[in-house]
């Protein structure tokens, strides 16, 4: 895994994934335990490891952060996460995020936080305002919701 120190003040953008995971009309959210956006609610996901496909990355990250296995994985969109405040006026963090939509495997539906997640929950898609999500995350969830008919 790429360490947090390697992710701050990067020399080039890092590739990451995010997953909008559905179960019974609810969406899987995690509370981030590490930067960037530590303490904030978000989608499960993280950095791609060397030799891993993006599909393998999204499956691994969701499993590590929530204990949930996913199926019906579909690409949603690309999101740029560029956070200022780095050395010499450069970004502190710079991720190119590939977001996917997926369903929870019916055998693993109880979220258990792990790895970078301090909490993992199923949230009602109609009450996402309660979680103070990054506006781009809300847009990605809504796009997935429309495509999947939730």
From TrEMBL:
PANTHER family to which the protein is assigned, alphabetical: ADP-RIBOSE PYROPHOSPHATASE, DIHYDRONEOPTERIN TRIPHOSPHATE DIPHOSPHATASE
Presence of the UniProt keyword Hydrolase in the record: yes
InterPro entries recorded: Nudix_hydrolase, NUDIX_hydrolase-like_dom_sf, NUDIX_hydrolase_CS, NUDIX_hydrolase_dom
Keyword tRNA processing assigned: no
GO MF terms, alphabetically ordered: hydrolase activity
Protein family (similarity comment): Belongs to the Nudix hydrolase family.
Domain Nudix hydrolase stretches: 10-146
Annotated source species: Thalassospira marina
UniProt name for this protein: Nudix hydrolase domain-containing protein
Keyword list, A-Z: Hydrolase
Cofactor(s) needed by this chain: Mg(2+)
SUPFAM superfamilies: Nudix (SSF55811)
């Amino acid at each position: 895994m790429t360490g947090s120190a390697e992710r701050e003040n990067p020399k080039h953008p890092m590739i990451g994934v995010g997953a909008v995971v559905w179960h019974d009309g609810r969406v899987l959210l995690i509370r981030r335990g590490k930067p960037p956006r530590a303490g904030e609610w978000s989608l499960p996901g993280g950095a791609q490891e060397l030799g891993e496909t993006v599909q393998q990355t999204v499956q691994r990250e969701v499993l590590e952060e929530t204990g949930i296995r996913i199926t019906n994985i579909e690409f949603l969109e690309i999101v740029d996460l560029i956070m200022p405040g780095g050395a010499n006026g450069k970004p502190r963090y710079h991720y190119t995020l590939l977001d996917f939509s997926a369903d929870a495997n019916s055998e693993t539906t109880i979220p258990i936080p792990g790895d970078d997640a301090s909490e993992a929950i199923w949230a009602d898609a109609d009450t996402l305002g309660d979680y103070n999500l990054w506006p781009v995350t809300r847009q990605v969830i809504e796009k997935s919701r429309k495509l999947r008919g939730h």
